[in-house]
């Protein structure tokens, strides 16, 4: 039997009615002749609640216990989905990550998938089971501890299963009907794309477009998984949604194809650090060991042998970053006057593979922000993206201004 992977995100399984609605979509695919692997997220809001409980209990928590707690939301929806399917006379059962077993690295809260042995699920399909419901987002480490794959990780579970089981397609059902030029919740002018290139989606995801987790796009690209995003609330068919595919399959060619944002960023500046060989390593090694996802880095021009070093990271990692820097100072590895914090910033980025061969994108972006009187705090660029750090209160305005400036509401 051909295999199809169907993933339902948090809002798609937010209550029992929605689980029933998702199960109807599964039934349709079973009727079409597929064996289906369903990946479920926790009910919407559940994971946030669990993360909140962990933070309230232990602000600098043990990441293994964090994973034990926050993975639990998916266990509930997996069981409920299997029960719902059984009530519809569809042979189904649930699996938690460790039961598969979905084997991961031991990088707790950001674990990478190492292996998904097929034997258990294949055997059940051979015995007549039609649907395997798997709890997304979670796995088991070599040490036998429960791990999670990072926020939004159920997307990655889904793509990894599609690759492991050579599925015909991986359908990501969510609360929007496809991938847009920017988050449709920020501007009504956002335009749905029929197709998007892996490279562009990878960049948009890594810059904050949470419609797909970055790692899921990486895996789909590497293992050539046909990946589609579509609505769980509308009638859908083979042609619905947005397909993530190779650049060659796409007719549309705009210089900039999308705008992404990451709302909760922080800018930290170590004031007056000694400007000497090895200082960057002395700062960023302990930050990396503390699990801080450092993003942008700027070093000021030095004066009198001292300089300022600025970096950005997610706002919820500021406490850990501060601790790592104070400890490095206490060990005598670095010296600084003060760690200045700006926790009210966000990152806005424009992305497009056309940038490889077109100049002037940066200038156009900066002009558009200037026209709205938005001050840029940090800039970073790569081959196919330009990002700026700005005050969070201007985020929506900046996204709208850039969407307009690059004419993204119109097809190429
Ligand atoms: P799920 O719970 O189904 O995994 P997510 O909330 O993780 O859903 O992702 C879907 C959301 O991603 C949408 O509701 C939308 O607000 C947001 N989003 C951000 N950027 C985009 C984009 N470019 N296209 C579509 N949705 C986007
Ligand atoms: N429930 C997890 C989260 O909210 C995983 C997911 O939904 O993809 O991040
Ligand atoms: Mg998601």
TrEMBL record:
Belongs to the aspartokinase family. It comes from the Bacteria. Its EC number is 2.7.2.4. ATP binds at residues 7-10, 174-175, 180, 185, 210-211. This is Aspartokinase. Pfam families: AA_kinase, ACT, ACT_9. One of its GO terms (biological process) is homoserine biosynthetic process. The keyword Transferase applies. Residues 268-353 form the ACT domain. The keyword Transferase applies. It catalyses: L-aspartate + ATP = 4-phospho-L-aspartate + ADP. Substrate binds at residues 47, 74. GO terms for cellular component: cytosol. Keywords: Amino-acid biosynthesis, ATP-binding, Kinase, Lysine biosynthesis, Nucleotide-binding, Transferase. GO terms for molecular function: aspartate kinase activity; ATP binding. Pathway: Amino-acid biosynthesis; L-lysine biosynthesis via DAP pathway; (S)-tetrahydrodipicolinate from L-aspartate: step 1/4; Amino-acid biosynthesis; L-methionine biosynthesis via de novo pathway; L-homoserine from L-aspartate: step 1/3; Amino-acid biosynthesis; L-threonine biosynthesis; L-threonine from L-aspartate: step 1/5.
